[in-house]
Each structure stands twice: as C-alpha cells, then as structure tokens.
UniProtKB/TrEMBL annotation, chain A:
The gene is ccmE. Residues 29-149 are extracellular. It comes from Sedimenticola selenatireducens. Residues 1-7 are cytoplasmic. InterPro entries: CcmE, CcmE-like_sf, NA-bd_OB-fold. GO terms for biological process: cytochrome complex assembly; protein-heme linkage. It is a single-pass type II membrane protein. It is found in: Cell inner membrane; Cell membrane. Belongs to the CcmE/CycJ family. Its main location: membrane. One of its GO terms (cellular component) is plasma membrane. This is Cytochrome c-type biogenesis protein CcmE. Keywords: Cell inner membrane, Cell membrane, Cytochrome c-type biogenesis, Heme, Iron, Membrane, Metal-binding, Signal-anchor, Transmembrane, Transmembrane helix.
From TrEMBL, chain B:
This is Heme exporter protein C. Keywords: Cell inner membrane, Cell membrane, Cytochrome c-type biogenesis, Membrane, Transmembrane, Transmembrane helix, Transport. GO terms for cellular component: plasma membrane. The gene is ccmC. The chain crosses the membrane at residues 20-46, 66-87, 99-118, 130-148, 160-180, 200-225. It is found in: Cell inner membrane; Membrane.
C-alpha cells in the first residue's frame, strides 16, 4: 500500500464520516429547518399555538374577501386542509388566488390566523403568456377537443 | 496503466501546464464573450415576457447560471483539493486557489440578483429559509478558504489547510441543491432538474443555457489566467521561469 493510497483511504473515510454526521444532524433537526407550517400541520396542532410562526400554502380560489381599507381575508389551503388568514397591509405583486403564499403571524382566538407579513411564493414555472393561456384553456376542458393535460 | 498515469502527471507539473494554459486562455475568452453577448441579447430582446411575473423575471438569466456556477465551481475546487491531498501535486493547490475568487463572485451575484428579484416578486429582499441561508454559507466558505489560504505563508501548508476546509465544506453543496425538496422554503423548487426536465418556455430555457455556458467559458478563462500568475509567483526562483520569453524581456 503506497502512501497515496493510504491518504485516499483517509480522505474517503473522512468524507463518509462527515456525510453520516450531517445526515444525523439534519434528521435530528428535521422540520425545525422548514420555513413554514402547512395548513395540515396547523390543523394537527403541530404549529406553535402561542407564538409567531409562518403559514404556507395556496390561496384558495374564490376565497379572497376585501374588507375595510387594506384588510383582506383569505383561505390558505394545501388541498387537504384550509386555514383562514386575516391581514392588513400591502400585498406583494404576485399575490393572487391560486398562488402560493407565506403568511407570518399568530393564531387568533377564533381560529383565524392573524398575519403581520404576507409574502408571495413563486412556483417553478416560467412561460410566455400565450402558453399559459393555452394551458389554461386545455385545463378547463377545451371545446376544440384538445386533450387535457 | 503506468504510461497513462505518467501522461496525466506530465500536466500536473506547473512548467508544462503554464504554456498550455496560455494557449487555452484566448480560446475560452472568445467563447465567453460570444456566448454571454448572445445570451444577454436574448435575455433582453428575444425571450418572451413571463405570464405572471412580467418583465422582472429576466434577472433569472443571470441569477440561475450564477447560482449553478457557484455550486459547480465549489465541486471542482473540492476535486482539486482531494487530488492535491492524495497525490501531493503542486498544481492542484494552485487550481483550487485560482477558482475560489470566481466562485465567491458567482455566489455573491446569485445572492444579490436573488434579492433584487425577491423584493418585487416575494415582497422581501431576504428571508432566512434553507435555500438562501445555505447559499450564504457557501459564500462564507469561499471567503473563509481565501482567508485561511492567504493567512499561511508556506504555500504547500496553506494549500493543504485550504484543501481540508474545502473538502469539509463540500457537504453544503447537496444541502443547497436539495434544500427546496427537503424542507419548506420560500424559494421555489428547481425549474430545471434531472428527474423532471424543464418547466419553462423553450426560448427562455435556451437563453438560460447559453448564459450558463458563457459563464462556464468565463470561469475557465479567468481561472487559467489566475493560475498562470500563481505559477509565476511560486516558481519565480526556478530556471524555467527565468528562461520564459515574457519574463526575460
């Protein structure tokens, strides 16, 4: 065994050890590294009840209510569960129904999540408007008989 | 086997690598200028407007290739660092050192352009989610490597210490890449991935790939220029350097 084989062995063992250590650390930290809780987490009481956290999901279609001045109320859903959110302030440009959203705040007494910050979460899709239109039409069961995608 | 090994080792000698790098630099510079020129033109004038984000999305043509490069350069540095530790070749340490500033620049660029995109799209410059935080750590790893390597006077020891830091930090690369899958993050998932292909318009995709290839060529060119000056610095006392046409004058 040459010296460089020995060094290669040390290096490989070191990297494997590091990998195992990192895996264990991240398993231990688990969901503590997550940026937000989903509505299902909230319904199952996994989210902290008495202090500030972030709630993330999709703004449910047709759920946006504009109240007095800048107050808005909407439902955040992960398709399995929904949580009602109330927010007063300016919404980011990308905020819309059917769009991903992350709200920071705490649970109010009537089960309404009172947010003091709302961020829009963008998805991984980038496309020209024409393509988006075409997809939209195809999705709604196009009258022209285009296959649903 | 032995002959092939010998052949490879020939280029690990700074004296043979120096003129080779000198021949490669103009080629890669040309490729970089051409690709980034075409890529930027396409970014601004050819690529269509996004259906939801409007024109503001165009920053991704710099952001995404820069972020890719910041991760990829680190992997190449780790490769050279490992090679240097195992085979004790002088050139490996020089290559690691030559790549680090470019990697740091790309990591910074990815964070900076990301902040510019985040303000109008998300509504915030910065959040401490897993993707953004791990990319910031990558920037600190680059800066830490440069500082450590620069703090030790003996270059061989400096290279070994730096190589260890680079190899320990390599654990961060899969964390950055998979952070958007493993944890809930504000940052969106990968638009282009090996398992799912691409989720963007064809013209947009090509623009991004051309920019990425341009950044590649730029990285190679600038790293070679840098490694050439590192070679000259470290080998200043040798006869082959004193016999170089550009040194003798």
């Amino acid at each position: 065994m040459k010296a460089r084989h020995k060094r290669l062995g040390f290096l490989a063992a070191g990297l494997v050890g590091l990998g195992v250590a990192a895996t264990l650390v991240f398993n231990a930290l688990d969901s503590n590294l997550s940026y937000f809780f989903s509505p299902t987490d909230v319904v199952q009481n996994k989210a902290p009840a008495d202090h500030v956290y972030r709630l993330g999901g999709m703004v449910q279609q047709g759920s946006l209510e504009r109240g007095q001045e800048l107050t808005v109320k909407f439902l955040v859903t992960d398709t399995a569960n929904t949580v009602k959110v109330a927010y007063t302030g300016i919404l980011p440009d990308l905020f819309a129904e059917g769009q991903g959203v992350i709200a920071q705040g705490r649970m109010g007494p009537e089960g309404v999540f009172v947010a003091d910050e709302v961020l829009a979460k963008h998805d991984e899709n980038y496309m020209p408007p024409e393509v988006a239109d075409a997809l939209d039409k195809a999705h709604k069961g196009a009258p022209t008989g285009v296959a649903n995608k | 086997m032995n002959a092939r090994l010998l052949n490879w080792f020939k280029f690990s000698s700074p004296a043979t690598f120096y003129p080779l790098a000198g021949r490669l630099v103009p080629i890669f510079t040309l490729i970089a200028v051409a690709l980034i020129g075409v890529g930027l033109y396409m970014s601004f004038f050819v690529a269509p407007t996004d259906y939801k984000q409007g024109e503001g999305y165009r920053i991704i043509f710099v952001h995404v290739p820069a972020a890719w490069m910041s991760m990829f350069i680190y992997l190449i540095m780790a490769f050279w660092a490992g090679l240097g530790l195992v085979f004790n070749t002088r050139l490996s340490g020089m290559m690691t050192r030559a790549l680090a500033p470019t990697g740091a620049i790309f990591a910074f660029l990815a964070l900076w352009t990301g902040a510019f995109w985040g303000k109008p799209m998300w509504g915030t410059w910065w959040v401490w989610d897993a993707r953004l935080t791990s990319e910031l750590i990558l920037l600190f790893l680059y800066l830490g490597y440069l500082a450590l390597q620069g703090a030790i006077d003996d270059t061989r020891r400096a290279d070994r210490a730096g190589a260890l830091l680079v190899l320990v930090g390599v654990i961060n690369i899969p964390i950055i890449y998979y952070s958007v899958q493993w944890w809930n993050t504000l940052h969106q998932g990968a638009t282009i991935s090996m398992d799912n292909g691409s989720k963007m318009g064809v013209t947009m995709l090509w623009t991004m790939l051309i920019m990425a290839l341009g950044f590649w060529a730029y990285t190679i060119a600038v790293a070679l220029v840098r490694v050439r000056s590192i070679i000259l610095e470290r080998e200043a006392d040798t006869t082959w350097v004193s016999e170089l046409a550009e040194v003798r004058r």
